[in-house]
Amino acid sequence: MSPTAYPLTWPHNIPRTKNKAVSKFKTSLPAALKNVRSSLQLFATDSGKKVEGITISSNVTLGVDRPADSGVAVWFQWDGMSVCIAVDRYPKVEDNVQAIYHIIDGRRTELRHGGLHIVKATFTGLLALPAPDRKHWREVLGISSDDGTLSVEYIKLVYQRLAKAAHPDQGGSQDAMAELNRAREEALREIGA
Questions:
Q1: pLDDT in tens, 87-137
Q2: Are 80 and 90 in contact (CB under 8 A)?
């Protein structure tokens, strides 16, 4: 499975931020996105190596520019490496995008002063493991769309009903229960619970 622009494809090797920080960035989402794209182009020029397959992944979609999960992950290929820079440190999507811009710009500084080998060493910590091939939480829980009535209670009710069949003691499996637990956690996080 390839990373998707929507919904957010978060790399499973990078932990999520529990306590959000206050940002001092003063940028809009379009400006932050432009900064990331131009920084990646400049990085490619500086390194002499192509940056390809860029996917900026988030939960921003038509009509939803302030999702409960403000995380952003930028996936790309560079010099034979699949890289993912993922940030969810700030409560606003545009601030997380701007933070990614600064991270890329930091790699450009490393390139100018330390050389290509330093940047390659730095990127080993950002290597993107293949995106997990898994279903979106809505599909797992059987919830088709958010009509504004989605609540913690409703998610827990659906979870309990499905857990009866998914549990290994009830004829299910550990994998089915793990998928259900993950879906519940993602659903609760998305609605801000």
A1: 999 999 999 999 999 999 999 999 999 998 888 888 876 776 555 566 778
A2: no
Window from 18-27, 91-100, 115-124, 140-149 with minimum mean pLDDT: 140-149
Q: Is the dihedral of CA 21, 24, 30, 31 positive or negative?
A: negative
Q: Compute, in degrees rounded to 10, the torsion defined by CA atoms 10, 16, 22, 23.
A: -30
Place of tokens 């010099």: 79
CB 100 within 8 Å of CB 93: no
* SS3 call for 20: coil
User: How crowded is residue 132: how many other Cβ atoms within 10 Å of its Cβ?
Assistant: 11
Cβ contact 65:53 at 8 Å: no
Q: Assess contact for 136 and 143: CB atoms under 8 A.
A: no
Cα-based distances in Å from 61 to 19, 98, 106, 109, 155: 24, 18, 29, 33, 22
Global pTM reads 0.68
pLDDT at 60: 93
Alpha carbon of residue 170 to chain centroid: 34
